[in-house]
Design a protein that fits this description.
globular; 17% helix; 3 helices; outer membrane lipoprotein receptor (LolB), chain A; alpha+beta
Length: 237
């Protein structure tokens, strides 16, 4: 028996906000990035597809987010084949909630430039150097590589996607492009006594089809307290 998707909007807004607060890159070319996110004892694989100013984030939980500066933000729920449009008001409210949560444990206006601490490593095949600093009052550690020629282009376009409706408030929760000393291969943020780590596993320049960035035609819109039609399980689009 199907049941109403009560509480669904907040659940997936939190999902989206988490990736916006972490490291995300947008570029003018087509790229596929695979990442592993570790937080609160859990590991999650994330695939980010980039085409121009459009972005698609696929998680290992049969959920995707489509972000388009012109059209806005949409959450895809693959198993029930449904989609949910996220309003700019909802995104702005989520950003404000995150800022309020941060203010309880840190000064959200405190930022410290990144400084090299002399440590080096090899992560995902990249030679990395470690830097530490603060963003919105939170301690942040970056393991970066200088051996990626397009890293400045990638990081500059981060702000472009955050100009999508309702996302501008996330600028204050992100690391400005000019603050990065290289391409972040691993980012560690300390939040409420826990470490949230995002590791870049691979990056590939390719050609992506336009249909990866649009709502599939057989998906139906999910509205608050609506009941999805029962359907056989299918693979994510």
């Amino acid at each position: 028996m199907s049941r109403p998707y009560q509480g669904t909007p907040m659940r997936y807004l939190i999902f989206l906000a988490g990736f916006l607060f972490g490291w995300t890159t947008i570029t003018r070319a087509d790229f596929v990035l695979k990442q592993t996110v570790e937080n609160f004892g859990q590991r999650q694989g994330v695939t980010i597809k980039l085409k121009g100013s459009k972005c698609r984030i696929d998680t290992s939980s049969d959920t995707s987010a489509l972000i388009d500066p012109q059209m806005g933000t949409v959450i895809l729920l693959h198993q029930p084949k449904m989609f949910m449009k996220v309003s700019s008001e909802q995104l702005s409210a989520q950003a404000e909630a995150i800022k309020k949560m941060l203010s309880a444990s840190a000064n959200p206006n405190e930022n410290a430039d990144f400084q090299a601490d002399g440590k080096s490593d090899n992560i995902s095949g990249f030679a990395t150097e470690q830097y530490t600093g603060k963003v919105a009052g939170l301690p942040v550690t970056l393991d970066v590589t200088r051996n990626f020629s397009k890293y400045r282009e990638l990081l500059t376009q981060l702000y472009a996607v955050q100009d999508a409706p309702g996302l501008s408030l996330f600028h204050s929760l992100s690391i400005p492009p000019e603050k990065y000393p290289g391409l972040p291969v691993r980012t560690t943020v300390e939040l409420l006594g826990q470490k949230i780590t995002t590791t870049l596993d691979s990056v590939e320049e390719t050609v992506l089809p336009e249909q990866d960035f649009v709502i599939p035609p057989d998906y139906h819109e999910l509205r608050a307290n609506s009941q999805p039609q029962s359907s056989p399980q299918s693979s994510p689009q």
